[in-house]
């Protein structure tokens, strides 16, 4: 049985609209979650883009360690892609994206002039999984709150154009998830990070998986530090039950939500759930 089931609903409709809009844009900003840069990559993006230029934005860089950021930087560069690491909450890294987008605009308008066309504002679309920080990033690029932003999936419900400057227009699109995601391990990581969108999953099962994953990554000390309760060879299920008894009057759902929210907000510390693959 799958841990994650989702019902795309409006997202399926938004995907169809987005594919139509991509045909009209000059540039795509793909936003991923720094904790899971691979799991938060939509597998269809490459086929949608064709030859259009793309800027890869790795958001929530504050939630991973600097050493890991450097590893991902090296890994992406080895594959011919320049990642832009950002923190949508503080604006870190946003200026570099703006400059890179403007450079794309220069090239677009040089091409237009060569064809006898007048220059125009560059049209860019911001895409990615729900809740990876697209709207917060746009607000930072604009230096003011123009689009709704919140730490939950599904806030952006429809396509919306916003003008960044005379030279750049941005399309804020709803989060997109694949109609089907065969890799349940990736789906669970998306659920842990709250990047899954309209999905059905059991918070307790996801919290248990998070504990097991922290043990697998040798990061169990963050649990001891936060809850004063060592994992000490317990399974994730045993840990959740004990945490519930000690701190939440035996209510496992409350314990599960505390675990998930503490991870999602950074209260457990800077923790990445993925490392760059070393076998390719």
Name the helicity range: 40-55%
How many domains would you count in the coordinates? 2
For the biggest sheet, the summary is:
6 strands, mixed
Q: Let me know the average pLDDT.
A: 86
Low-confidence stretches: 148-157
The CATH topology name of the largest domain reads Rossmann fold
Q: Output the CATH homologous superfamily of the largest domain.
A: P-loop containing nucleotide triphosphate hydrolases
Q: How many distinct helices?
A: 10
Based on DSSP secondary structure assignment, what is the total number of beta strands? Answer: 8
Q: What is the CA-atom radius of gyration, in angstroms?
A: 20 Å
Along the chain, the helix and strand elements come as EHEHEHEHEHEEHEHHHH
Q: What do these coordinates show?
A:
This protein has helices at 10-22, 45-49, 66-78, 94-114, 134-142, 184-192, 203-216, 221-227, 236-247, 252-265, and strands at residues 5-6, 27-33, 54-59, 83-86, 122-128, 160-165, 168-172, 199-200. With 280 residues, the chain is of the alpha/beta class. It has two domains: 5-172, Rossmann fold, CATH 3.40.50; 202-265, no CATH class. The chain has a six-stranded mixed beta sheet. Strands 1-8 form a two-stranded antiparallel ribbon. The longest helix has 21 residues, at 94-114. The model is unreliable at 148-157 (pLDDT under 50).
């Amino acid at each position: 049985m799958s841990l994650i089931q989702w019902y795309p609903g409006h997202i399926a409709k938004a995907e169809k609209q987005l594919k139509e809009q991509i045909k009209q844009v000059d540039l795509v900003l793909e936003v991923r979650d720094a904790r899971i840069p691979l799991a938060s990559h939509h597998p269809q993006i490459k086929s949608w883009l064709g030859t259009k230029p793309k800027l890869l934005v790795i958001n929530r860089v504050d939630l991973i360690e600097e050493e890991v950021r450097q590893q991902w930087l090296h890994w992406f560069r080895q594959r011919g892609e320049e990642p832009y690491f950002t923190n949508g909450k503080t604006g870190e890294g946003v200026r570099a994206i703006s400059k890179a987008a403007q450079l794309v605009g220069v090239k677009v308008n040089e091409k237009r002039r060569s064809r006898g066309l007048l220059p125009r504002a560059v049209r860019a679309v911001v895409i990615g999984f729900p809740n990876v920080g697209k709207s917060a990033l746009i607000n930072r690029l604009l230096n003011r709150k123009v689009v709704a932003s919140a730490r939950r999936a599904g806030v952006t419900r429809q396509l919306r154009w916003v003008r960044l400057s005379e030279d750049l227009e941005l399309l804020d699109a709803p989060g997109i998830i694949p109609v089907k995601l065969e890799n349940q391990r990736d789906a669970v990581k998306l659920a842990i990070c709250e990047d899954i969108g309209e999905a059905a999953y059991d918070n307790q099962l996801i919290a248990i998986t998070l504990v097991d994953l922290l043990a697998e990554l040798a990061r169990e000390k963050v649990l001891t530090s936060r809850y004063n309760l060592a994992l000490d060879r317990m399974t994730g299920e045993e840990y959740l039950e004990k945490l519930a008894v000690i701190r939440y009057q035996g209510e496992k759902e409350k314990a599960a939500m505390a675990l998930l929210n503490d991870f999602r907000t950074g209260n457990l510390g800077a923790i990445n759930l993925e490392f760059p693959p070393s076998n390719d």
